[in-house]
Amino acid sequence: MSFIQKFSSVMLLALFTLQAGAAARADNAERLLELTHADRLAVPVYAQVQQMFAQRFADAKAPQSRKAVLERYQAKANTVLDRAIGWNELKPELVALYKKEFTEQELKGMVEFYESALGSKMLAKLPELNRRSAQMAQASLEAAVPEVNKLLAEMTNELGNTPKK
Q1: 32 and 87 co-located in one domain
Q2: Do 104 and 34 share a structural domain?
Q3: Which domain holds residue 80?
Q4: What angle, rounded to 10 degrees, do the helices at 104-115 and 117-159 form?
Q5: Does the residue 58 lie in any domain?
Q6: Would you say residue 33 lies in a domain?
Q7: At residue 37, what are phi and psi to the nearest 5 degrees?
Q8: pTM higher than 0.70 for the full model?
Q9: Quick one: how many helices (H) and strands (E) in the chain?
Q10: C-alpha–C-alpha distance, residues 56 and 54, integer Å
């Protein structure tokens, strides 16, 4: 076997190894997204848009006999959202993002963790923990709002300006 043939064989093997590694990384990234229910990321946005249309319907004092109009526009809005943030649109971008940010070994480790009993428990408890954490932060923030507003008023007074509305 000549040097060129050996070199070509080594390069081909390296290329196949890189491709296999990239495929495994993509598979692990995809599995991680599946385990963490990333496909549900946009659900609150869909719900919020649906609520906006329902509120507009109510504000228009439309009779229930016209509810089909609301439902038609909600379906159209879902189609627009699907094109922008639907799972089929987000998934390739998220896989690429995770592949960029984490090594194959890191992705594999995260997959193994989330497939474990502890990881599953964390995934099950995380939404409630996040909700309660947000409530705690909101309550703390509400306590600070009057003081922050007072500081804003003091600064405005010191600057000698009145706020423009």
Answers
A1: yes
A2: yes
A3: 26-115
A4: 110
A5: yes
A6: yes
A7: 55, 40
A8: no
A9: 6, 0
A10: 5
